[in-house]
Structure formats: C-alpha cells, structure tokens
Structure prediction request, 256 residues.
Amino acid sequence: MSGSSRRGKIFSSWLGTLAGCGNITDKGALDLIEFVHVTKRYGQHSAVSDLNFFIDRDDFVTLVGPSGSGKSTLIKLLIAEERPTSGQIVVAGRDITTLTNRELPYYRRKIGVVFQDFRLLPHKTVYENVAFALEVSGANNEVVHEKVSEVLELVGLTEKSSSMPDELSGGERQRVSIARALVHEPKLLIADEPTGNLDPINTWEIIDLLFKINKQGTLCVLATHDKEVVDALKKRVITLREGKIIADQEKGKYVL
Prediction:
C-alpha cells in the first residue's frame, strides 16, 4: 500500500471511530478542526471569548500570545479537558463538546499531545513508555511491537529503546514523548511548548521532527513563546490576546 493510500485509510478509520460517537459531516472530511463562537468563562472571567476559526487536516498552525492570552485554555478545550461555556468545537465533523465521559477516552486516543515537561514514566524504558500507551488500550503484543518499532524509528530512537528516561538528553526525552503521542496514528498532534525546556540545537531537532510528521499527513498545532521559531517557520500563525484572536496570518510572524 502506498503512503498516501495508507494515510487515507487511517484518516477514514479515524472518522469512523468518531462516527461511533455521533454523525460525521461532509465538512469534517475537509476541515479537521472548527471552533464556532467558542467562549470559556471561569466565574466572571472569560479565558477565551467568541473564538471562530478552522484548520485544514494537513495544516501546520502555531498558536502564540502572552501569558494569560488563552492559549492553554484553547488547548484544554481541543483535547476535551475542559468544555466551553458556549459554542461548538468540531473535530472531523463531530462536535466534541457533546462527548460523554464514556466516549472521551476513545477521542483522546485519536489525538496526540506533547507537553513541555515530557511526562515520561521514570521506571520504564523508552520502549516501555511508548508501548504503555497501546497496552492500556488493549493492543496485543504483535501490534504493540510493530507500532512501537515504527514510531521509534521515525523519531530516531531505535538504538535507545532499552534506555531509561534519566539516561537521555532533554531532546531525546521529548522525542520519546512525541513517539508515544504518535503510536495511535493520530491525525492531530498538539504540541504545547514542546521546546520550552530545550537548548537551541535540540529545539530545532524537535521542530524539524514536527515538520516531518506534518508532511506525512498529520495536522500539527504548536503552541510556543519562541519568537525565533515562529518567525523561521513561516507557517500559519494564530495570535491570541486577552482571550481573543487578534490575528490569523498565513506565513505569519510573532507579532504582539
């Protein structure tokens, strides 16, 4: 099977999984993510207010904004850790704001999330950290071995598979977390300040890896404060301030 055919099959399977949680619209096959008049309030404070935007399924988008701008809230809404006060968040044609507690784990397995602090299990090897994400979903040993080997090769850590997290550099640990995020073959990868704890060399290795993943058919949403990275990427930039989108630029720059 060709790479493009395989990616199409994976995406169709992903839509089918979400279809089990509700109807899939034709639009969902085109725009993977759509925020429709989304507001999230905590008491009287609006963390985000009336957000409206869509992201195509093969896009690479950077979220920028000062502390308190709403980036973290937006990400929590996207991974369904928080629910909006009002509005709709449509992913692959499914309004995820209506997911039940029973449906949430299935949705989250279909998205990959990478954090600044790696969140690796310290007493498990590189292989075991990545495998654990599959084991908890009931995958058999053959599937686990095949998928873990595949993603470790993708992130360049095959030779480190038996290493413990404390034996790795910061960049290597972040690559393990990316491998773990990819093991379910997500069509959406969210990277929340993934280079915040890294030096410049490791930062660009991680950014290059995210580009590689994006080119293979995974939508990437990158939240970062790193102006140098944003300006060098020359990708779409959504800028937030005080919970509102103040700019949405193709091939944008870090402008606050």
Notes: Strands lie at 31-42, 45-56, 60-64, 86-91, 94-95, 111-115, 188-192, 219-223, 236-241, 244-249.
